[in-house]
Design brief:
Elements (H helix, E strand, L loop, with lengths): L13 H25 L11 H23 L1 H11 L9 H8 L1 H26 L5 H33 L1 H4 L17 H25 L4 H41 L14 H26 L5 H9 L7 E13 L1 H5 L4 H21 L3 E6 L2 E6 L8 H28 L6 E17 L4 E6 L1 H16 L1 E6 H4 L11 E5 L6 E10 L15 E4 L2
Parallel strand pairs: 4-6
Antiparallel strand pairs: 1-3, 1-4, 2-3, 4-5, 6-8, 7-8, 7-9
Helix pairs in contact: 1-2, 1-6, 1-9, 2-5, 2-6, 3-4, 5-6, 6-8, 6-9, 8-9, 9-10, 10-11, 13-14
Length: 530
């Protein structure tokens, strides 16, 4: 969310005007310095004063700066006023936003127009002051145009550098260019083309014009060459800085992301292609952050490996028939204990036990399918198998025994606190099921359905009847490398199934407690001992 910063963070037009005037002041002093310090009294024919002419050009430029700065700063002032009135940045007028972000472009266009008008004025001034010699007049006019072009380039890139640090980070707050979508982003190669034009075009052309004007004295050559050297250095430095700094900032953010730090945001320096790269990077980081959040959420139900597979799209979450092991674990006696507790205390107790059960599932590579009141359903082998049906079945049984140990630990803590313990019943069955999304297009959950799921639930209910915490089916038993006594095998009839079911019991005997009494009304009917 983009919040409104204090209005004082948006700069006034004063620094921009100061930058413009400073550039013209350098040109003015250079022209005067040429006449007063370099040119000898007899070095130039009387009446030819190119230094003064260039100084006059910059005086004209100062006047234009004062005019254009007032015009160009109007959108900035309107934005400052809007922010002071409490307008959020996303709701600022787009026209003013565009004009402010691209203020350096407007300065370039305005200066080009100004010097296009100023050149004839300089020519007229030269004629009026008696400088009628054609080479001199032509020289002054063309040099005025070139000076204006130079000043325009300087202002463009100095102002761009200024905006990149004062305006763009604020007006493009939030690390995106969504508000700028109606605007065309400026290609970065435009800046390189400007530098090339200055070095290859303007400088040689100026020297050629000087040579043809009849004023080709050595001091003037030195002055002009030095003038263009510092201009080229300044503009070139600004261009290089304007490209290298955003790229360097982006690279540093990329290194942080590579190291796992997703709490980064790339700074957008300008509304150009480099700014677009930073915006796309920020969008990528947001997506990675969301995926990390989803992976964290998935991590509460499945292992990291399964979460990575699901998020990568390599696992199809549609209906899929497969062999898997289903585990049902139910906390017995919880209802009786909860009746003696406040609802908040009962919920805390339930979360304490269910949390321990869920940790066991994740630790053994299972998928936490759902919580059913005080029961847990887990899948081993769906959506991903750990290697084979046997490995999945072994992991499920190991998980069941780990759950039993966790219950003993938690009961010891409750007993030490003077509280009643709880019991746990776990049913495990391996068989064919259908795993996939169940629900609608708008809301669905990943689960498994089929007879294997129903039988695992029935086996869990049999634990009360048999007085043992873990009951597994023969289908699960045959996949285990586990020796069981004959006394641990039973044959039972399950409601809804015509054939009897062979089961095996594991884990400790249920604790002798008034809360855990064998039930004669259980839906599973005991048949015979083999």
């Amino acid at each position: 969310m983009i919040t409104r910063p204090p209005s004082t963070t948006l700069p006034t037009r004063t620094p921009i005007v100061a930058i413009c005037l400073a550039v013209h002041a350098v040109g003015l002093l250079a022209g005067l310095g040429y006449e007063l310090l370099i040119v000898d009294g007899n070095g130039v024919e009387m009446g030819h004063y190119p230094g003064y002419a260039l100084a006059a050009v910059h005086v004209f430029g100062v006047a234009m700066v004062l005019v254009w700065s007032s015009v160009m700063s109007m959108p900035l002032e309107r934005l400052r006023y809007a922010l002071a009135q409490g307008t959020p940045i996303p709701e600022l007028p787009l026209a003013d936003l565009r004009a402010t972000v691209y203020m350096h472009e407007r300065a370039w266009r305005n200066l080009t127009l100004t010097w296009g008008i100023g050149a004839p004025l300089c020519f007229a001034a030269a004629w009026a002051f008696g400088w009628r010699e054609e080479p001199v007049a032509t020289h002054m006019m063309l040099m005025s145009v070139l000076e204006g072009m130079i000043v325009g380039l300087i202002l463009r890139y100095v102002m761009r550098w200024y905006e990149a640090r004062r305006l763009s980070p604020l007006l493009l707050a939030g690390g995106n260019l969504e508000r700028m979508t109606p605007m065309s982003l400026r290609p970065t190669w435009h800046h390189l083309a400007m530098l090339l034009f200055l070095v290859v075009g303007v400088l040689p052309l100026s020297l050629f014009l000087l040579l043809m004007s009849g004023l080709a004295t050595q001091p003037l050559y030195i002055y002009l060459y030095a003038h263009f050297v510092w201009v080229t250095g300044l503009v070139g430095g600004m261009i290089v800085l304007g490209i290298s700094e955003p790229l360097g900032n982006l690279e540093r953010r990329m290194l942080k992301v590579r190291s796992g730090d997703l709490n980064v945001i790339a700074r957008i320096y300008a509304a150009d292609t480099l700014g677009a790269m930073a915006a796309h990077f920020n969008e990528m980081v947001v997506n990675l952050r969301q995926q990390a959040h989803l992976r964290e959420l998935f991590g509460r139900y499945v292992t990291k490996e399964v979460a990575d597979e699901i998020l990568s799209g390599r696992v199809e979450l549609g209906g899929e028939r497969r062999i898997a092991t289903v585990l049902f674990a139910d906390i017995q006696g919880f209802t009786a204990i909860a009746e003696q507790m406040e609802p908040e205390e009962a919920l805390a107790l339930l979360n304490r036990y269910l949390g321990a059960m869920a940790d066991c599932v994740i630790a053994h590579g299972g998928t936490l399918d759902k919580f059913l009141g005080d029961a847990v359903m887990a899948l081993f082998g769906a959506p991903l198998s750990q290697g084979s049906d046997a490995i999945d079945a072994q992991a499920a049984v190991d998980c069941a025994l780990a759950m039993s140990r966790e219950v003993d630990r938690l009961n010891s803590e409750r007993t030490a606190e003077g509280e009643l313990p709880v019991e746990l019943g776990i049913g495990v069955h391996t068989g064919e099921l259908v795993a996939g999304n169940v629900g609608t297009d708008k809301r669905a959950e990943y689960t498994a359905i089929g007879d294997a799921v129903n039988l695992a639930s029935r086996l869990q209910g049999l634990t009360r009847r048999l007085g043992r915490r873990v009951v597994i089916s023969a289908e699960t038993r045959e996949r285990l490398d586990l020796d069981l006594d004959r006394d641990d095998a039973f044959t039972v009839r399950v409601r809804g199934r015509k054939r009897t079911v062979e089961v095996y019991v594991l884990g400790p005997v249920w604790a002798a407690s008034r809360h855990f009494k064998p039930s004669d009304e259980h839906t599973l009917t005991f048949i015979t001992e083999p």
